[in-house]
Amino acid sequence: MDKFKITGGTPLKGTIHVSGSKNAALPLMAASILGDGPSILRNIPRLNDIYTFNNVMRVTGTRVDFKEQENTIEIDPTNLSYPESPYELVRKMRASFYMLGALLAKNGYAKVSLPGGCAWGPRPVDLHIEGLKAFGAEIEMDKGYVIAKRPKDGLPGGEYRLNPSSVGATVNLLLAASMAKGTCIIKNAAKEPDVVQLCDFLVKMGAIINGVGTSTLTIQGVPRLAGAEFDNAPDRIEAGTYMIAGAMHPESEIELLNVSAEDLGIFPQWLEKTGVQLQMNGNRISVKAPELIKPVSIITEIYPGFPTDLQAQWAALMTQAQGESQVTDTIYPDRFSYVPEMNRLGASIKVRNNTAVINGKSNLEGTSVMSTDLRASVSLVMAAMVAEGESDVLRIYHLDRGYEKLEDKLKGIGANIERVEQGE
């Protein structure tokens, strides 16, 4: 098992190329099995979650050819014959549950294990199941598996309101609805760029979807979809993570390439409130850290609000701000597993219900810390990079799920970070 060994206190200077979006790639991959021929997806990051999902699809008989050096994946569902997703794979990653909607649309039958994923908070799949029922699917549970069937002539269609709005449920319902017999309406649908991109890809495959980018999606089912070629979007969470990292040391100044500023929603405005200087020009964003970081409290919201996937990183930034700030997560209230570990580094953070209260500025000191999920891991890396002395960040396999070449990119802009075997 690997760990990161980090010596802090080094300013970041240079350029980072942002990878393709993991959260957008996975729905695109699921949608690819709906075509009656191969699809080619470009700008796909080399991440453990991508490799896991490749194997989930291969179980069905789908051919998956990941050309890693080109970040391109070809998916051919021509020989798909086994519409099931086993627990051994689905437990590793919640997004595998997208196979429920995709296999139901493709085969009229799906047997998918209830998902696993990060070790924080309940994230139920009730919305996925109730939405599919509203569209006419028959659903039953069998020993930890969800079994979905459609009537012989296809899903009749219907209307379902998501409460609360959910990216995962919106994705699964879109996949199932795209080849329904009737019309399906998703109300209070997620508007995240990941969902918009999925809609664009499905339309390119031949789907009929109205209301893309709004909270009401109307899908007129079609009998067949064709394979298509598509470019995945840059990872907005990776971009936001590096933007925050570039703000934490007063001498840091970095530039991000392959960024979609439009996909960042309201986040850049919040970052500028801390005193950070941002310049956004096309697919480039430059970040200049302030001499003194101002404390700024945030509340996570659905897109285009402040992303829950950046709240742990924001808390790391606020440990270096001059004064008290608060981080409130309304999306996943239990997402504060990083707090005890960040306090081990010398932070002063207290959690009250779904709010972390942060008192800065803290003079962080290096030590060993352990992460429990993807975003918690990267927040600890960021804190260690400004801490005095040496830190070990353990369980970095979480990071390999969602950040492509993290240590290489950070070393490229001046961070003192090495991946070593934990026994060393």
Compact description:
With 424 residues, the chain is an alpha/beta fold.
What does this structure look like?
With 424 residues, this protein is an alpha/beta fold. It has two domains: 2-17 and 234-421, UDP-n-acetylglucosamine1-carboxyvinyl-transferase, Chain; 25-231, UDP-n-acetylglucosamine1-carboxyvinyl-transferase, Chain (Alpha-beta prism), CATH 3.65.10.10. The protein has helices spanning 22-32, 48-59, 87-90, 99-107, 126-134, 167-177, 193-205, 236-245, 267-273, 311-318, 338-344, 374-386, 397-400, 406-412; strands at residues 2-7, 13-17, 39-42, 63-67, 72-76, 84-85, 109-113, 138-142, 145-149, 158-161, 183-187, 208-210, 216-220, 229-231, 253-257, 277-281, 284-288, 298-299, 323-328, 349-352, 355-360, 368-370, 390-394, 416-421. Strand 10 (158-161), helix 6 (167-177) and strand 11 form a beta-alpha-beta unit. The longest helix is centred in the middle third of the chain and has 13 residues, at 193-205.
**Estimated radius of gyration:** 22 Å
Q: What's the count of strands?
A: 24
The low-confidence parts are 117-123
**Sheet with most strands: strand arrangement:** 22-23-1-24
Query: What is the C-level CATH assignment of the largest domain?
Result: Alpha Beta
CATH level-3 fold name of the largest domain:
UDP-n-acetylglucosamine1-carboxyvinyl-transferase, Chain
Largest sheet: 4 strands, mixed
> Into which percent range does the helicity of residues fall?
25-40%
- Integer average pLDDT: 95
- Name of the CATH superfamily of the largest domain: Enolpyruvate transferase domain
* Residues in β-strands, percent: 25-35%
Q: What is the count of distinct domains?
A: 2
Shape: elongated
The secondary structure category is alpha/beta
SS field, number of helical segments: 14
Query: What would you say the CATH architecture of the largest domain is?
Result: Alpha-beta prism
Terminal residue distance: 10 Å
